[in-house]
């Protein structure tokens, strides 16, 4: 009887092994390797009065808010906000129609901004909705700039200026290092017109007050205090809003880390 039980159990084990082998043959290990997009892009809703939007590259949604219901969130990226929490989103090199589309139920997926852009292999970009929203045409300005990130250098920080204010004159970014005695004032590049970006300029890391000035002016048109630029960091200061406006449309300086 002992021998019979042994043979029976051995047969069961052999059958299980054969079934397992067949299963592996029919269902081999899945290959989940894929191609990582070579380029990166950020999206900003800096259009005064613009509704919340989701950003798209052709028909692919590039930004969205987390939903706890399983249904798409209708809020989108609000004015003054950045898609994907301000992080870069991967995108393959190629030519795209980039757009901001209304996320609310009313006028759902209506493109209020769009432009055609060629995304280069391995490059970084930022797309801005800008200017003032036209409630009649339901359109707003937009532009894209390349983000040529400098080589990693922990001895300094890098800063540049982007002008997203439609009714502004060309302006230049001024930064004041408040840790130095006396304070050290640095002009970041040259004047930057609307829909343009200046170059990244190296400065010592530390605490700063910043401002932007019209060419030839000695006082700030817009200012912001108590910013910190860390060692090895790369930052974009962007002007948004409407010059001389108040409330939510008041001109402001946004600070976003590119790295």
What is the average of the pLDDT values?
Answer: 89
Roughly what percent helix? under 10%
Number of E strands: 18
Count of separate DSSP helical elements? 1
Uncertain regions spanning at least 5 consecutive residues: 1-27
Q: In the residues, how many domains can be counted?
A: 2
Q: What is the level-2 CATH architecture name of the largest domain?
A: Sandwich
Structural class, from helix and strand content?
A: mainly beta
What sequence of helices (H) and strands (E) makes up the elements?
HEEEEEEEEEEEEEEEEEE
Query: What form results from the Cα inertia axes?
Result: globular
End-to-end separation in angstroms reads 74 Å
- CATH top level label of the largest domain: Mainly Beta
Q: How large is the radius of gyration?
A: 26 Å
Roughly what fraction of the amino acids lie in strands?
35-45%
Major sheet: size, sense and barrel closure? 5 strands, mixed
Q: What is the CATH fold-level name of the largest domain?
A: Immunoglobulin-like
Give a structural overview.
The protein has 259 residues and is mainly β. It has two domains: 35-147, Immunoglobulin-like, CATH 2.60.40; 150-259, Immunoglobulin-like, CATH 2.60.40. Helix content is 10%, strand content 44%. It has one helix at residues 2-26; strands spanning 39-45, 53-57, 60-61, 81-82, 89-91, 94-102, 111-119, 124-134, 139-146, 157-163, 171-177, 184-192, 196-197, 201-203, 206-214, 222-229, 234-240, 252-257. The strands form four sheets. Strands 1, 4, 5, 8 and 9 form a five-stranded mixed sheet that branches. The N and C termini lie far apart (74 Å). Mean pLDDT is 89; it is low at 1-27.
């Amino acid at each position: 009887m002992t021998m019979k039980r042994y043979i029976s159990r051995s047969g069961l084990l052999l059958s299980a092994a054969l079934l397992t082998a067949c299963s592996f043959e029919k269902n081999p290990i899945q290959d989940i390797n894929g191609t990582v997009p070579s380029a990166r892009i950020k999206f900003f809703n800096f259009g005064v009065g613009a509704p919340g939007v989701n950003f798209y590259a052709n028909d692919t949604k590039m930004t969205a808010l987390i939903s706890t219901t399983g249904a798409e969130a209708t809020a989108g990226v609000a004015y003054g906000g950045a898609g994907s929490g301000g992080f870069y989103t991967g995108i393959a090199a190629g030519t795209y129609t980039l757009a901001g589309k209304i996320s609310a139920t009313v006028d759902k997926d209506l493109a209020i901004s769009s432009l055609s852009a060629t995304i280069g292999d391995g490059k970084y970009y930022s797309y801005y909705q800008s200017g003032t929203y036209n409630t009649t045409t339901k359109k707003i300005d937009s532009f894209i700039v390349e983000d040529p990130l400098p080589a990693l250098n922990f001895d300094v920080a890098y800063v540049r200026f982007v002008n997203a204010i439609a009714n502004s004159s060309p302006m230049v970014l001024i930064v004041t290092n408040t840790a130095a005695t006396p304070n050290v004032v640095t002009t970041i590049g040259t004047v930057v017109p609307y829909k343009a970006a200046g170059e990244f300029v190296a400065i010592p890391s530390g605490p700063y007050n910043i401002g932007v000035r019209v060419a030839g002016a000695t006082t700030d048109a817009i200012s912001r205090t108590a910013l910190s630029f860390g060692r090895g960091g790369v930052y974009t200061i962007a002007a948004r809003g409407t010059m001389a406006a108040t409330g939510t449309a008041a001109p402001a300086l946004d600070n976003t880390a590119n790295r």
